[in-house]
Write a structure and sequence with these properties.
The complex is a heterodimer of chains A (412) and B (347).
Chain A (H helix, E strand, L loop, with lengths): L1 H12 L24 E8 L6 H17 L3 E2 L2 E9 L10 H13 L3 E6 L3 H14 L2 E4 L29 E3 L4 H14 L4 E6 L3 H17 L2 E7 L8 H10 L3 E5 L6 H11 L4 E4 L6 H4 L4 H4 L2 E5 L9 H14 L7 H17 L7 H9 L4 E3 L2 E3 L11 E8 L2 E9 L3
Parallel strand pairs in A: 1-3, 1-4, 4-5, 5-6, 7-8, 7-9, 9-10, 10-11
Antiparallel strand pairs in A: 2-3, 11-14, 12-13, 14-15
Chain B lengths: L19 H24 L1 H32 L6 H18 L8 H31 L8 H21 L4 E2 L9 E5 L2 E4 H23 L1 H11 L1 H6 L4 H27 L1 E2 L3 H16 L4 H21 L5 H15 L13
Antiparallel strand pairs in B: 1-4, 2-3
The chains are: A alpha/beta (412), B mainly alpha (347).
Chain lengths: 412, 347
């Protein structure tokens, strides 16, 4: 299995040499030292169902970052293995698959870092496994606040995710206390007086919906309801009727495309043609935007951590160019975050110097990231593992594509 | 699940010697369901009418799928777990037809009507043939095997077909909105009837009538009923039991294909795992109505549709599945044979 992964990685880069895989050892302790010069970075993202285009784009971003470093950091050869945390039957991330992936990485002695998961609910499962193994985990896209912060989190979060008592998880995308503030700003800008909130009941979707509800309360935006949906329902006509009865002039869905996002937007619009429909970064992807249709997309507004390429520093603009050249298509929103996640991991290994194969040294180096000039702009990683970036993009949809509208300066 | 053979008449049939208590118990669920409806109508008349309308039009799709479960169970006492996926493939085929011919809402009326007929025909044909094939490959060789064996092959078939769907369309697809599905047609008692409501009923009712006529009045239907009652006796009477079972799967598949095409136009999005949930709900509907009972399957589908709509309105979407299955448990406890009684041979 590992050999195949190695072969695949080798074929895709033509750089990393396949060293001996010493898999199957027991999980190493926090100060584990793989003792070898061949290190593995795993990624775990949903590569089946409609998450695939976005995840594949993230994988491409990760590969691009590794290629730029020639597959090496100092004396260490870096191998990259992409894992899939989705199953066909679920059509999105699946808990069993997530823990299988996390255990696989935890048991591989050469593992130095783990990029993932894509979904916050999935990370809630993998963080504890990797935390006990003392492996650095960086998510390109998790925004649920409770993974790292007490504010806006459920009881017991975030400590319950870190059984070892030490922090091992960080992210390169701003957390949802920022997105929720941006969302409320966006809604008020668009003239919302009363918003009907739906959520998909997941860690990410419900967490975000709850925070939107809370911040809206502070900012004088009325919330008609905050309702969990049955993500297996065939349609949402009854719920669309409730939006109508409530007199709301806006709707917000805290959730992901894979949990019937398109169906919900279509059904709510059909019965409420004048209601503005707001979605978060969980639907900021082509499988969602390309399926809405001409009528619904006119009323759709999405917050997205990815800004207009023109607003990024020169290195960011170069990333967009390099990506299009290599893969022949524009990246999905999270590709640049995949790229940066790999970059920051490689940087941590580099900063650890001779201890680049010491897991704890790499974790420490990651948490010491300060004023890094990245493709996303200048940021630091705080003690929670959160980025100090806070700009959110306000997007609209035209011809099935996300179109950047403006920057939302979120005040936290 | 040992089946008890019951007369076809509804639960209200009173045989001599049964106490009034039994009669009330038999009908208590109707009283509860009816009572709940009356209560909701009294509290919010218009909203409840809207819910009933939404529920009935959603329920027609469940009813069509439920018939496939009930037909197959009635004749070989097997739960065809792959049936939901057969319905999903039906949706995919119909949408592929429209995408191939590039039909859209902007096409001429003749093209739209024609392509809908072709889509319906293709979906029914493919789903019907697929169901017959599944029976040949996965169930027929296990006819004499313990009941668990075909159950496992059925689940296996379900997963295989789900992956076929995944390879075919990895991401949810939008259906061309040929009927302008949510365009208002007329308003009755403050309830807005949209085109998809009429469409779902207009396609479903003729299919149901045709099926009931086929099973009730033709030689083949008679052979099906005879095989359901006693396959060995049927064989002695010269009925080709294998062919009759194949025919039953064909009928179930045809209806699933039709349901798939209606679902695609009604909801506007299709995805590879839609069959799993739809199958579960339709199977529940079949059990609720009384497995093996055609009219029961239809009633079960409609009742579940209405319960779902009322649940969405009064308890919120997250609780709807709990309410549906809560009602099912209640029905099973009081009437294990379902609302209309089972029609299967005695085990």
């Amino acid at each position: 299995m590992a050999a195949w992964g190695c072969l695949a990685a080798a074929l895709s880069f033509g750089v990393a040499a396949c060293g001996d895989d010493d898999e199957g050892g027991s999980a190493s302790s926090g100060s584990g030292d793989s003792g070898s010069t061949s290190l593995t970075v795993y990624s775990s993202l949903p590569l089946q169902g409609d998450s695939r285009p976005q995840s594949q784009s993230v994988v491409n971003g990760i590969k691009l970052a590794l290629e730029e470093s020639g597959g090496k950091v100092g004396n260490f050869t870096i191998k990259y293995t992409s894992l899939d945390d989705a199953t066909a039957s679920a059509g999105k991330w699946e808990a069993g698959q997530v823990s299988t992936n996390a255990r696989k990485a935890a048991q591989d002695k050469s593992t130095i870092a783990y990029i993932g998961e894509f979904n916050s609910g999935a990370s809630a499962i993998s963080i504890p496994v990797l935390n006990q193994a003392g492996i650095l985990q960086v998510s390109p896209s998790n925004t649920a606040a409770g993974l790292t912060r007490k504010e806006g989190a459920a009881p017991g979060e975030p400590d319950k995710y870190y059984p070892s008592g030490k922090r091992t998880f960080g992210r390169v995308v701003p957390a949802d206390h920022i997105q929720a503030a941006a969302q409320v700003t966006f809604q008020k800008d668009e003239g919302c007086k009363k918003t009907y909130v739906f959520n998909d009941k997941e860690v990410y979707g419900k967490g975000l919906a709850d925070q939107v509800e809370q911040i809206a309360g502070q900012q004088g935006l009325e919330i008609a309801a905050n309702e969990g949906i049955d993500t297996k329902a065939a349609n949402f006509r009854s719920l669309a009727q409730k939006v109508k009865s409530s007199g709301a002039n806006c709707m917000f869905f805290g959730g992901i495309t894979q949990n019937k996002g398109v169906q919900l937007f279509k059904d709510v619009h059909a019965q409420n043609p004048s209601v503005k429909l707001f979605g978060p970064d969980g639907v900021a992807e082509s499988p969602f935007t390309s399926k809405l249709g001409a009528e619904v997309e006119k009323m759709t507004y999405i917050t997205n951590p990815t800004l207009d390429p023109k607003l990024y520093p020169t290195t960011g603009q170069e990333f967009f160019k390099a990506y299009e050249e290599k893969y022949g298509a524009a990246p999905e929103p999270y590709a640049i975050y995949g790229y940066e996640a790999m970059k920051v991991v490689l940087l941590a290994i580099e900063k650890a110097g001779d201890k680049g194969n010491d897991k704890q040294a790499v974790i420490d180096a990651f948490f010491q990231t300060k004023d890094r000039d990245s493709v996303l702009g200048k940021y630091s990683i705080d003690e929670n593992g959160d980025t100090t970036l806070s700009d959110y993009g306000a997007d609209v949809v035209k011809d099935g594509k996300l179109v950047f509208d403006k920057v939302l300066k979120a005040q936290t | 699940m040992e089946a008890a053979s019951l007369p076809e008449t509804g639960p209200a049939s009173r045989t001599p010697g049964r106490s009034a208590g039994d009669f009330v118990l038999d009908n208590i669920l109707w009283v509860i369901l009816g009572g709940a409806l009356v209560f909701f109508l009294a509290t919010d008349f218009t909203q409840t009418l809207v819910d009933i309308k939404t529920g009935l039009s959603n329920g027609t799709i469940w009813a069509l799928i439920a018939l496939g479960y009930t037909l197959v169970y009635g004749i070989i006492e097997l739960i065809n777990f792959a049936h939901g996926e057969v319905f999903m493939i039906g949706s995919f085929v119909a949408v592929s037809v429209w995408q191939t011919f590039e039909v859209s809402a902007a096409s001429s009326l003749l093209v739209i009507v024609g392509s809908m007929a072709v889509g319906l025909g293709a979906a029914m044909l493919v789903s019907g043939s697929l169901n017959v094939m599944i029976e040949r490959v996965a169930y027929r060789p296990l006819r004499g095997a313990p009941k668990l064996a075909p159950l496992i092959t059925a689940i296996g078939m379900s997963f295989i077909l789900q992956n076929v769907g995944l390879l075919w369309r990895g991401t949810p697809d939008s259906t061309p909105d040929l009927i302008r599905s949510q365009k208002e047609v007329f308003t009755l008692l403050d309830v807005t009837i949209v085109r998809s409501d009429i469409f779902a009923v207009a396609v479903t009712v003729p299919l149901l009538v045709a099926l009931l006529w086929f099973v009730g009045s033709t030689r083949y239907g008679k052979a099906m009923r005879a095989t359901a009652q006693d396959p060995d006796a049927a064989r002695l009477m010269g009925i080709d039991v294998d062919r009759t079972i194949g025919l039953t799967f064909l009928l179930g598949g045809l209806l699933a294909g039709a349901a798939g095409m209606i679902y695609a136009l009604y909801n506007g999005t299709i995805q590879f795992n839609q069959g799993f949930t739809a199958g579960l709900i339709a199977f529940t509907a079949a059990v609720m109505g009384g497995i093996g009972n055609l009219k029961g399957a239809v009633a079960g589908g409609l009742i579940i549709g209405v319960i779902q709509a009322l649940g969405d309105t009064h308890a919120g979407g997250r609780w709807t599945p709990v309410i549906v299955f809560g009602v099912l448990i209640l029905i099973m406890v009081f009437r294990p044979q379902g609302l209309f009684g089972e029609e299967t041979r005695e085990g």
